[in-house]
Amino acid sequence: MVTKKILKSKMPILTIGATKKIAATNIEWHSVLSELIDNSILNDRSRCVNVLINLHYDSDNSKSYIEVIDDSIGIPESDILNVFDYGTSSNQGKMLLCKMGMGLKSAVWGLGELEYLISKTENGNKCQVEPAKYNGDNDELSYVQLTPTTSQLDSQNSGTIVRIKNVNEKLPDWASEKYFNIFIDKLNSMYAHLLNENRVKITIAYTSSKGHRWTSQCFGSFPLMSNPRHILNNDISIGFNEPTYKANTSETIKDVIIQTTNTKVKLTAWHKPHPIQVEKYFDLTKDPKYDSDRYKNSVFSYGSDTAGITIMYKGKYLEFGLEKHLSRAENQGIIVEIDDDSGLSFTAFKNTLQKNNNYREMLEAVNAFLHENGFFVRATAGTPNVAEEEIVNKFLDFVKTDSFYKEGLGIIDFDKQVQTWIRTEVGETDVIIKDYNDPTKVTNVIEAKKDRCGGYEAAQLWGYMAYHNCKKGILLTGVDEQPSFSAMINSLKSFTNLSEVEISGLNVKTFKAGKFFNI
Fold first, then answer.
1. Is 50 exceeded by the pLDDT of residue 518?
2. Are 79 and 92 in contact (CB under 8 A)?
3. 293-309: pLDDT as tens digits
4. 39 lies in the same domain as 180
5. Is the predicted pLDDT of residue 65 greater than 80, yes or no?
6. What is the average per-residue pLDDT within 173-177?
7. What is the rounded average pLDDT of the residues 175-196?
8. Where is average pLDDT lowest: 21-30, 150-159, 215-224, 293-302?
9. How far is residue 246's CA from residue 250's CA, in Å, rounded to a whole number?
10. How far apart are CA 336 and CA 352, in angstroms?
11. What is the mean pLDDT of the segment spanning 119-127?
12. Nearest C-alpha neighbor of 63 from the set 181, 214, 175, 171
């Protein structure tokens, strides 16, 4: 083996401009900012870290800044310059939410330009670092340690201050407090678990040269759910605030282990209530969980912008809106929780996963499970997301054990009289009930629909009844019919001079006090 002779070596030069390019991302700015919050959170669950974020917008970019102050354990002086080396970090005692050691150095240059970092450890040692003086993007980046200046840390036992300048490209010039509150709600959702567990307390203060002054403390804001198989209020058609049931069970899709050859994650999936349902239920109950304004501003609210998969890691929601499954996915909520042994890798920002083969393998397994459990069933807004086949099967399971309905439908021998999914020349009839004494005679035709039915569905049911020579029909559905349904039936009766035809609607959500799908 020939030994190669080293002729020269050179450390790569990193300029100010190159650093900004490395830190550039399409991630929303509040997610980049969250990297600086993450640096403070401790492994010690008994200690709550206080984080104060000061945001100041000025029309003069040189006067704008983002300042993050925490009372965590600080950075030792021996590490203070090393924290800006790519791929390294100083995380003794911290949660290590950023596995690649890129959070701090990427965030400070992704939001603007680092002005300084001051840190104080619990032994009282304080140190300060800032970039060496530079005149433009072509200058080489280096850092210098300076004598610490007077700061808020002087009155704290320990902590860190990070101040970023020239932030106008990222920090919004909010015109009203409404937009500030929307920003707060994003952090409320992102840190819901860590806030609820009292691992961190986050306070945001926003000022501007226009005189705006707003302050808010974050609180845990969890997803609002509506289980389509477990109805909470019949009139509003809103489900219980819980994940959706697995098919044919009363077990929720919560923390379900999805394991493949190379990956393992926990899956939670739910359906979201429509904003009108939330508003109606809040007016009825005054339950603060159903505050419609808060719901609309949540990252888990109803709508295509908030659809798709959310990634959670160590109690923090990292990435939102991944792999939006359908064009009508407004009411689907999916959380995939990953851990260090999940077989998935982060990019430089821990807020995004690498879209590699393991990632695609995991997605295929998650989607397969959800398909198998009827999660992706489409439905009209405000109606339960359940398939027609599920409605039929649950209804017949109910009828089998309910003497009142069996008698009303003339059923003496269920297996002999009831037939499902009958393929004919005119289509597929969902259910027919035959006469006990004359099996050639059909006494009832039942058609199931998952959405709100109108004139077209009325004509379809009438057609199936005509084919089976039956004058009794039932529309089986999870929502009330439209007025056009009855109008079409009356028109057909009049046109055919068959006033004796009986067609009734049967809304399954009224069974068992709204617990039809949990019988």
1. no
2. no
3. 888 878 888 987 778 88
4. yes
5. yes
6. 94
7. 92
8. 21-30
9. 7
10. 13
11. 92
12. 171
| Same domain for 410 and 351 | no
Torsion of CA 161, 162, 168, 171, to 10 degrees: -70
Query: Is 252 part of any domain?
Result: yes
Confirm whether 433 is domain-assigned: yes
The answer for residues whose C-beta is within 8 angstroms of residue 379's C-beta and 6 or more apart is 228, 331, 385, 386, 450, 451
Any domain includes 98: yes
Q: Report the run of H or E that residue 131 belongs to, with start and end.
A: strand 126-131
Q: CA-CA distance, 173 to 179, in Å (whole number)?
A: 10
pLDDT of residue 516: 44
Residue 499 CB coordination number (10 Å): 9
Tally the domains of the chain: 3
Last residue of a domain, one of 313, 347, 372: 372
Does one domain contain both 349 and 431?
Answer: no
Exposure of 38 in the CB half-sphere (CA atoms within 13 A): 29
Please report which helix (H) or strand (E) contains residue 68, including its range.
strand 65-70
The confidence band for 88, taking pLDDT boundaries of 50, 70 and 90, is low
Confidence grade of residue 389 (pLDDT, cut at 50, 70, 90): confident
**CATH number assigned to the domain comprising residue 147:** 3.30.565.10
Mean pLDDT score, 104-132? 92
Q: Do 425 and 360 have their domain in common?
A: no
- Quick one: 156 and 299 in the same domain? no
Residues spanned by the domain of 368: 231-372
DSSP string, 11-67: PPP-BHHHHHHHH--SS-HHHHHHHHHHTT-BS-TT-PEEEEEEEEE-SSGGG-EEE
- Residue 268 is predicted with a pLDDT of 97
Instruction: Tell me, yes or no, whether 20 lies in a domain.
Output: yes
Of the residues 217, 250, 277, the one at which a domain ends: 217
* CA atoms of 228 and 495, how far apart (whole Å): 38
Percent of the chain with pLDDT over 90: 50
Task: Return the SS3 of 337.
Answer: strand
Is 131 found in the same domain as 22?
yes
d(C-alpha 287, C-alpha 299), whole Å: 20
> 325 with 406, same domain?
no
Based on the domain organization, do 318 and 181 belong to the same domain?
A: no
**Contact (CB, 8 A) for 374 and 244:** no
Beta bridge partners of 65: 56, 165
For the chain, the average pLDDT equals 87
pLDDT over threshold 90, residue 324: no
